[in-house]
Amino acid sequence: MRRDVDAPGPTNSVTHVDMVAHKIIFDTDADLEKPGVDDVIALLLLLASPEIRLEAITVTFGNSTLQNTFSNVLKVYGLVQQHILEHPHDATRFPNYARPTVLAKGRAGPIAGELHIAEYFHGPDGLSDISNTHPHFGAVTTHSSLTVATTEAYKVILDILEREPPGTVTILAAGPLTNIALALREQPEIVMKARRIVAMGGALDVPGNTSPVAEFNFYADPYAAQEVIQFPQLPLFLLPLDITVPHSVDFPILIPAHHDCSPSHTPLQSFITAILTRPRNVMRMLGEDDAFQMHDPLAAWFVIQHADIQGTALVPGWKAHRRMFRLERIGELTKGMCVVDRRGTREVFHSNRAESGVEEAVALRNLAQEGEDGIMVIVETPGVKELTDALLDRVILNSRAP
Description:
Blueprint: E1 4-5, E2 22-28, E3 32-33, H1 37-47, E4 52-59, H2 66-86, E5 101-105, H3 119-122, H4 130-133, E6 146-148, H5 153-163, E7 169-173, H6 178-186, H7 188-191, E8 196-200, H8 216-220, H9 222-229, E9 236-239, H10 241-244, E10 248-250, H11 251-254, H12 267-285, E11 291-293, H13 295-305, E12 319-323, E13 326-327, E14 338-339, H14 353-367, E15 375-380, H15 384-396
Organism: Dacryopinax primogenitus (strain DJM 731)
Keywords: Glycosidase, Hydrolase
Family: Belongs to the IUNH family.
């Protein structure tokens, strides 16, 4: 079942610095020491975006261990600090860098099932093994704008949502949905105060990237993903592989042709070159195009462009369908799979005729209603070039793509 949503929005995305920035909680699996590569690029994009105010960074396991994710966040802040010291004129380009932000650790594993991480792609530290290959990009142990929380990440999420007025905070979930599920279990009414929850995860009509049928975030904690997507009336927007994979940016655009140790490179450019090296080699080994799939940066860009938008309205260029599916949690070959009912009969989702019989199945079909059922799934964006230009302008501080 799907229903188009393409509500009218403002003629331009919000870029006014003088307005009150919309508050964001960034829930990421950038390993307590080093977040995953696309998580890091998403974090840099958030730090460089005046439309939003980065209120908290909550970390969970995922691409690497929890400790690596936490450390990677500190490493990103240290990198921006190094860049600004060498290029003071760029200080204003990172409005969220110096703002007070809470950093909180979440669970080190899924709420149920076996722990899996993605070291094969992102390296043992979650950042292309940059700890060994480029030790000068070391993590700072502390940062003046970061306050390390003494409570678990999901409690920090609840504290912020409870403190702030309804509809003023967005949660951007770029990793497994473990922290979100835990928050829903404890105080669902508080989570419902969020303006929206934007999650990158799942694969509905395309192959998976971790198994033939599963995307990594949903594969890593399918129990959490199922609890989140089945929660009624949750203001959830999903960006699955269906939309993120087409938003790939050629590596030569992101990695300048000259060596990453060149004096002409800024610290940011050298860092991005270093962390993209391993994913580029993996993509080559897999026979893929020479391009980096911007899964989490696309989700971050959606949040930034909708910072001043309430409800389900979308700015021009973005489009969503409501989709219904369930998560396979224990399948030997299908763990993390988004199971879409493709029978076309409009029966109640996952009804089983072998158990209910044809007459009951028909009765259930007649009761099935179009409307507010299903998850809001992003199916169209303004385009790859707009995302690429945003990354070049705000993060890589380079010229725009042709």
